[in-house]
Amino acid sequence: MMSNEVSRSTLDTIQTSETARSGFDRRSFLKNGMVAGAAATVGAGALANSVPLFASDSKGPGVTKGDIAILRFLAAAEILESDLWEQYTELGGVQDGEESGVNGGSPLYMQALQILDGDMPQYIHDNTDDEKSHFAFINAFLESVGADPVDLSAFANLPSSKATGARDMGRLTNLMNLNVDTSFWTRYRSAANNPDLDRNFVFGQAENIVNRTAIPRTDDDLNGPAHIAPFNIPDHLKAIAFTAGFHFCTIEQGGSSLYPSLAQRVTNVDVLRILLSIGPTETAHFQTWHDKAGNVLSVVDVDPMTGSKVVFKQLSTNQPESLQSNLIMPEPCPFLNRKFPVCSIIRPTNTKGAAMGAVKALTDDGLFVGQSPDFFKAVRELAEAADAAEREV
Q1: 3-class secondary structure per residue, 150-218
Q2: What's the mean pLDDT when you consider all of the chain?
Q3: How far apart are CA 354 and CA 111, in angstroms?
Q4: What is the mean pLDDT of residues 14-39?
Q5: What's the pLDDT tens digit per position in 29-78?
Q6: What number of CA atoms fall less than 13 Å from residue 75's CA on the CB side?
Q7: What's residue 111's pLDDT?
Q8: At 91, which helix (H) or strand (E)?
Q9: Strand 209-212 versus strand 178-180 pairing type
Q10: Annotated domain spans of the chain
């Protein structure tokens, strides 16, 4: 969710390793309103100047087709987030009745996550609960104004982890081949550059994480030597947990940017209120994970399955300012125009191409490795519709 402008060809050229499920009728899927694109017909409640089908004290324009397109894309994004957070919760979150499907988790993986903070399992649990509430609310609101909700369940065909604690079920997202963009760290510490103003500036990576798993794939990932304390946790598993810690930041930073970016295209006051109310919770998540990621230890690991090497460096107060572990507040930076004083802000928030940029970032992240061409087409159509929305007067 870092990039702001993405051309249609960017996602058209995505290579996937699986074909669409045999017998899958995409036309029927679209007709049923699961992932309808920009040209889909929505109910009367979604027409410009319409009256919402719920009691509202707000005045001004009704919910527009553009508003519906934005909400549908955000519902899809929250469904995808919920899918990945459920996988983290099953293995690393608090195991209680609030989250369906948990079955004891992976205790050693939880201990590895707790190197970052003792409350990591609780935070993972609560982040999952938040994301699920977001898509459930947005879908309910869509139905209240006569529009179709979003349902991506037909695409939940990716394999689960086989580690003890994970449910054996189809997934929408892949946490086992991640390329984690950790440039959020230096981007939020930069006092001179803003991605909205400096499109070609490259913000440095805090850690280099390429083709790594963020969850145990099997119980084999719980084994191996430990060269640094705590010695009861293999270094390989530490690296998996640290990958997860930075991935949490990457995902939630993207949400922090996406909501204010799309809010600039909204017409109806109630829809604007939804975006302005949900968006800050994504920022709260990001701030929490940003703080915890700073507690990584220096560890080197070569994945025995993929051969991918990662070298985590310990972030500390002795690092350059752009990487200090205790500097997690956004540094003031140029905003709107350099003629104004610097300002501490969410970044980026340029609205042009925001939805397609989010899809590209999630794709580059490796979250969709193994997804079908139909999945990419459906998500692209939702993003294009959201980016085509314009504020109406």
Answers
A1: CCCHHHCCECCCCCCCCCCCCECCCCCCEEECCCHHHHHHCCCCCCCCCCCCCCCCCCCEEEECCCCCC
A2: 88
A3: 37
A4: 36
A5: 333 444 443 333 333 333 434 445 565 667 778 999 999 999 999 999 99
A6: 27
A7: 98
A8: helix 65-92
A9: antiparallel
A10: 8-157+176-388
